[in-house]
Structure formats: structure tokens, C-alpha cells
Design brief:
This protein has 2 domains: 11-85, Sandwich (Immunoglobulin-like); 90-441 and 515-532, Glycosyltransferase, CATH 1.50.10.10. The strands form 3 sheets. Strands 1-8-7-3-4 form a 5-stranded mixed β-sheet, with no helix packed on it. It has a 5-stranded mixed β-sheet with strand order 10-9-13-12-11. Strands 2-6-5 form a 3-stranded antiparallel β-sheet, with no helix packed on it. The protein has 533 residues and is an alpha+beta fold. 39% of the residues lie in helices and 11% in strands. The protein has 17 helices and 13 strands. The chain is globular, with a radius of gyration of 23 Å. The structure holds ligand 9MR and zinc ion. The site of zinc ion has 7 residues, from loops.
């Protein structure tokens, strides 16, 4: 007998309430703790969902709004329990934000803030310049990227962009949201205090000439040991134009956000952004990145940098209003890149979003309309995908790749932007559907975030979570999710060929192509939750 699947963290009183069943049922009752029937409904026969590989029946009991504990009883005997709560999403927001603290590098995580999940100071030694090992610099701080201990500029810039835009669009959610982290820099909201930890590291990654090292890491990934046990030599890897542009962009964005709190820090960020931009002007050609021989940590290669440069110009334009940045932006727009992409390898959407948020004179409105149309066009496309999914997942078959949960959450971000920034409220529903899918309303009946209930992420491909000797998983971590082309040996062994895309998942520590965590898989979840709240 199947269980209807639904979000594992409970439903918000006024929110969408959906359950999905992979077995025929016609009617259902929702009973409260005392057995009283509080809602009666009929299942909708959805039909076959190819990404799930299932025929599905759906229940929508959004009309039930009273807080309490309930059981949904289908007329075929299938049952599931759930709760309706006020602020149901708040614990998840807190936890996914706190996750960044647990990923801090270069400092000790102390029991006061980290509970059982402590570690000593890690990766604090000077890093040698890979191309000239007679030179070394301090490059400590920031967040570990993922299950590995590398720190990569483009990945960091992407995670920061999600978090900073979340604050930019929904500041009231964060003004009083405390996640108990050590703070520097005065009266900052916790989200900005945490981002400052990453930004302060980033500033150390800039060379005197303004160029930005692509990454700092050891030559090879560490064994599955605690971070302080990973004492191999650190290296600064060559400057890339993507890293330099993303750095310029995110420092400029941050300078505007931190200015009301700390003008000195804002000035410092802005000056760094300008230095990076000067390097970009002096180096107009694409300078990509490939791992040099002898290094096999994360590569984060890209095939072009026009989108990165576009984002940088948009942010500097937003800071200064200077015509020159605008002209460069317009020139870059002649290249072909996505204007809605919000990922680490493709960042055009961040530039478009910033431009949309600028107060513009009339003559610029036409360009703003174009960016607005791009987001709305994408929202329409995703809405169609959502309508074709039994679970309301706005995902194509191709989207179920390495880190598919980032696609799910990036799509939630598009729906949120379509509402908050483009003013089309109806798209907002898509945000909650995508989140419920991540939180358990999926064919695995699995909550992809650690720390929430029995059927949630427990064994991520995350070094400290494995090596810390603590039974429980570090909370608030977001798994990469189902991947229809598993790439690691464990996943290839454990996932039978022909498994449906949404079921290509198992919560196994070895499965780095399904079950790793990264900072930029956590950050869009924070954004989506901030929208909902
Ligand atoms: O997410 C990346 C995936 O698309 C690539 O195929 C894979 C192999 O290069 O790398 C993934 O990114 C990883 C990065 O290189 C290092 N930190 C963890 C990232 C997520 O697995
Ligand atoms: Zn570290």
C-alpha cells in the first residue's frame, strides 16, 4: 500500500496543501486528533507523470486552514499524517541559513554556536601562488564550497547573490531573524553577518592588479576527515575573467546593501569592485579556467564570460549611474546569453535583476521592459512544466541532472521574481509548490534537507558530517538531489538503469553525484523561503 506524499515540515495555515498518491483513490477525509472529520475531498486523477514514472492521484486541501495535527485518509485505505502550523517555514529558513555558519572555514566552530558540530581552525595557513610558488598570501576564511573543502570564487559569488538578493527583496523577513552565529560588524541582520564572513574572504582573493584568483584549495581533495585534519598545502589558482567579473559584481552589489550599516566596509567592497573592473577593461578577452596538471579539485570552468562581465557592469551601473557602465552593458547584450540564469556557471539573470531594481529615468524603461519580459517568458515556460508534473515540479527531464535541486530552487526563484519584481502575482504559487517538492512531496517521499523528520537527508557526501562522530547529520544542508545520469560508482551500483528521473536518488554518503551539498544549493532555498514568508 502506498502512502500519500506531502511536505514533511507541515503546512502554513494560509498555504498550499497538497498530497500526491501513486495509487488509485477517489475520495478522502481529513481527520483531526480526536477523529473528527474536518475536510472531505476528491482526488484528482492526474494521469501518468513520466519524470516520476508513476500514475498519480492528487488531493488539494488548501481550504483547510486551522492549525492542528491531522490524518488524511484515502478511501482505498492509504493514510498520511501532517500538521498545519503558523510560520511552518520559519524553522527551515533558519536552519538553511545557519548551514552557512557550519560551513565556515578558517575559524573554529565552538559549542556555543555549533552545538555538537564543532571543529578546530582549518585551512588557515598561507596559500602558495600555483604559478609562482615563491609567492604566498593569506586567503583564509569564507565557506567550504560543498562536501569538499575547496573555496571557489564563482560558486561563492553565486551563493552570495542568492542570499543578498533575498535580503534586498525581502528585508523584513530577515530584520529579526536570528540564527545564533558569532557576528562582527555591529548591528547587522544575521544573514548579512554571515555573508560578510564570505565577502571578507573574497577580498583576500584579489591580486594587486585587480584580477581575482579563481579558487583556493589543496591540489587534491582531502580524504573524508575533519577540516582541521586536512593540512595539505593550499594554493591560489590562476586568475580567471569569470572569477574577476563575478567578484566585481558581487562586491558592488554588497557595497549597496552594507552601506546603511557600515560605510567603511561598503567603501572597501566598492573599491575592490572597481579594481576588478579595471582589470576587466584591461583584459577584454575571455580568460577561462581549466585545472592545471597536478590539480583535481573543483574546476568550475565556463565557456565564456560575457554574462559575467554583463553582471559586473550592471552592478557598477547600479552603484554609480555612470553612462560608461551602461554603454558596456548594452555592448555585452549583443552576445547571446540567458537573461534569466541565476546559477554559478551562468549569471546573466543577476545583472538583469539588478537593472530591474534600479530607479530609472523614462528613457531606460524600454530596456527594463525587455528584462522584465525575459523573466516573465521564463516563468510562463516553467508554469507549463509545472502543469505537466503530477507533483507540480517545474522541471523537464533534463533538469534532473547533477544538483537537480538547484534547478528546482532556481525555478522557485524565477516564480518569486515574476511576482515580487515583475508584478505578476499568480506566479507566486509556483514557489510554494517547488519548496513542497523539495520538502517531501516527491516520489521518494524524502525531505532533501537534513534535520527535518525521519525521512530526511542523513548521509550527505559532506566530509565533516561523515567524520565528526556525531550520529545526527549537521542540520539545514540541502542535498543535490535526483540525477538521471549518476556519475559516481556507488550511485551507478545502487540506482538501476532505467530508473525514472525523480527516483534516481539514494541517501548514501558515497554518492557525490546525487547526495553532495553545496553553498549554492542552500542559498536558493533561503531565497525561496524568504519569498514565502
Ligand atoms: O556541480 C558540478 C557538476 O555539474 C560537475 O559535473 C562536477 C564534476 O566536475 O562538479 C560539480 O561541482 C562540484 C565542484 O566541482 C566541487 N565542489 C562540489 C561541487 C558539487 O558536486
Ligand atoms: Zn576549512
Amino acid at each position: 500500500m502506498n502512502t500519500p506524499v506531502l511536505s514533511h515540515i507541515g503546512f502554513e495555515t494560509g498555504g498550499i496543501k497538497q498530497a500526491v498518491l501513486a495509487q488509485r483513490a477517489d475520495k478522502y477525509l481529513v481527520k483531526n486528533n480526536e477523529g473528527k472529520v474536518c475536510f472531505e475531498g476528491e482526488f484528482e486523477a492526474f494521469g501518468y507523470d513520466p519524470n516520476a514514472g508513476e500514475e498519480l492521484w492528487r488531493a488539494d486541501f488548501s481550504e483547510l486552514k486551522e492549525t492542528g495535527a491531522y490524518t488524511l485518509c484515502a478511501d482505498n485505505g492509504c493514510e498520511v499524517q501532517f500538521e498545519i502550523r503558523q510560520n511552518a517555514y520559519e524553522p527551515v529558513l533558519k536552519s538553511t541559513l545557519k548551514a552557512f555558519y557550519y560551513l565556515r572555514c578558517g575559524c573554529a566552530l565552538t559549542p556555543e554556536y555549533a552545538g555538537e558540530f564543532t571543529h578546530d581552525v582549518c585551512h588557515a595557513g598561507r596559500a602558495l601562488v600555483w604559478e609562482d610558488t615563491s609567492k604566498s598570501y593569506e586567503a583564509d576564511g569564507g565557506w567550504h564550497d560543498a562536501g569538499d573543502y575547496g573555496r571557489y570564487i564563482t560558486a561563492g559569488a553565486c551563493a552570495l547573490a542568492h542570499l543578498l538578493f533575498a535580503y534586498r527583496l525581502y528585508p523584513q523577513v530577515f530584520d529579526s531573524l536570528e540564527v545564533h552565529i558569532p557576528k562582527s560588524g555591529g548591528r547587522l541582520p544575521d544573514i548579512l553577518a554571515e555573508c560578510r564572513y564570505e565577502l571578507s574572504w573574497m577580498l583576500k582573493m584579489q591580486r594587486e592588479d585587480g584580477g581575482v584568483y579563481h579558487k583556493v584549495s589543496t591540489a587534491h581533495h582531502a580524504a573524508f576527515v575533519m577540516p582541521e585534519k586536512d593540512t595539505s598545502q593550499l594554493y591560489l589558482f590562476p586568475v580567471s575573467s569569470m572569477a574577476t567579473a563575478d567578484f566585481a559584481a558581487v562586491c558592488a552589489l554588497a557595497s549597496r546593501i552594507y552601506r546603511p550599516f557600515d560605510a567603511e566596509f561598503a567603501d572597501c567592497l566598492f573599491a575592490a569592485a572597481q579594481r576588478a573592473d579595471k582589470w576587466l577593461v584591461d583584459h577584454p578577452d575571455f580568460l577561462g579556467f581549466r585545472n592545471p596538471k597536478g590539480c583535481d579539485t573543483g574546476e568550475y570552468g565556463e565557456r565564456g564570460d560575457r554574462d559575467n562581465r554583463f553582471w559586473a557592469c550592471a552592478e557598477l551601473f547600479a552603484c554609480t549611474g555612470e553612462e560608461l557602465y551602461h554603454e558596456r552593458m548594452m555592448e555585452l547584450l549583443k552576445s547571446d546569453f540567458s537573461l534569466t540564469a541565476l546559477g554559478y556557471g551562468s549569471v546573466g539573470g543577476f545583472g538583469a535583476l539588478t537593472y530591474l531594481l534600479c530607479d530609472m529615468p523614462n528613457r531606460r524603461r524600454v530596456q527594463q521592459e525587455k528584462f522584465r519580459d525575459a523573466f516573465l517568458f521564463e516563468a510562463v515556460r516553467l508554469n507549463e512544466l509545472m502543469a505537466a508534473s503530477g507533483y507540480h515540479a517545474a522541471m523537464s527531464e533534463q533538469d534532473y541532472c547533477w544538483g537537480s535541486n538547484m534547478n528546482l530552487m532556481k525555478h522557485a526563484m524565477i516564480f518569486a521574481i515574476a511576482d515580487t519584481v515583475c508584478g505578476v502575482k499568480a506566479f507566486g504559487r509556483g514557489v510554494e509548490y517547488q519548496l513542497q517538492c523539495l520538502l517531501g512531496c516527491n516520489p521518494m517521499d524524502f525531505c532533501y534537507i537534513s534535520g527535518f523528520g525521519e525521512k530526511s537527508l542523513k548521509n550527505p557526501h559532506l566530509r565533516p558530517a561523515y567524520a565528526d562522530g556525531v550520529e545526527e547529520c549537521i542540520p539545514g544542508m540541502v542535498s543535490g538531489g535526483p540525477n538521471r545520469h549518476p556519475a559516481d560508482e556507488d550511485a551507478k551500483r545502487l540506482i538501476p538503469a532505467g530508473t525514472s528521473p525523480m527516483k534516481c536518488f539514494t541517501d548514501h554518503v558515497g554518492c557525490y553525484s546525487l547526495n553532495e551539498i553545496t553553498i549554492y544549493w542552500n542559498s536558493p532555498v533561503v531565497f525561496a523561503l524568504a519569498y514565502l514568508m
